[in-house]
Amino acid sequence: MYILEWIISVLAIFIIGVINLWGLFGIVVLMAIESACIPLPSEIIMPFAGYLVYQGQYSLWAVAVAGALGCNLGSQLAYEVGKRGGRTAIQKWGKWVLLSQRDLDMADRFFARWGSATVFIARLLPVVRTFIALPAGIARMKLWPFHIYTFVGSFIWCYGLAWLGMWLGDAWNTDSRVKYYFLRFDFAIVGILLALGVWYLWSHWKHRVK
């Protein structure tokens, strides 16, 4: 609990410092980091941007667009890593984590059919949104649909969090519990993802043993 609060406090100091120094460009940079598979919480970035809207420094639309643009920039980096490096790595070493060419083929078919909806929905989910660009790149999803749905989903996410930060007003800056409650849902998502990961490894290992 105390370690978590300390981590959140350190992240909040860093995020607030970057936005205070660079303004809207700082929001772009931070959200780009968050979308490049680096878990920098947008649940702190965008509500603080919304607090600045409350103070009259920016408009809600401006911070939401800045956040969404940052998501597209960071996602492009993660997409390229997945497309160029991730796919090759899975083909070469995937057997060590129970991934096969068959799994890659299934991912390709899935993203070819459902990629747009998957990217859009993922951008509205904590934690998942940070990493969705990597599997999209591995599956070689078409780039323009990827960016369109990344922007639309990210804009909704950023606008919603910024609006909440604006609505909270001074409570965002004075009550440290607010930042903690923003991130509690993230840990529930992480728990679900870990459970799915364990199930995946168990089912693949069971199949392999047979």
Key terms:
210 residues; 10 helices; elongated; 0% strand; mainly alpha
Please characterize this protein's 3D structure.
With about 210 residues, the chain is mainly α. It has one domain (about 1-210). It has helices spanning about 1-20, 25-35, 40-55, 60-95, 100-120, 130, 135-140, 145-170, 170-175, 175-210.
A few lines on this structure:
This protein is mainly α and 210 residues long. It has ten helices and no strands.
The number of distinct helices, counting runs of at least 4 residues, comes to 10
Alpha-carbon distance between the two ends = 43 Å
Query: What's the gyration radius in Å?
Result: 18 Å
**N-to-C series of helices and strands:** HHHHHHHHHH
Strand fraction equals under 5%
Tally of discrete structural domains: 1
Structural class: mainly alpha
Question: Uncertain runs with pLDDT below 50, 5 residues or more?
Answer: none
Biggest sheet features? none
What is the residue-averaged pLDDT?
Answer: 80
How many strands appear in the DSSP assignment? 0
Helix content: over 70%
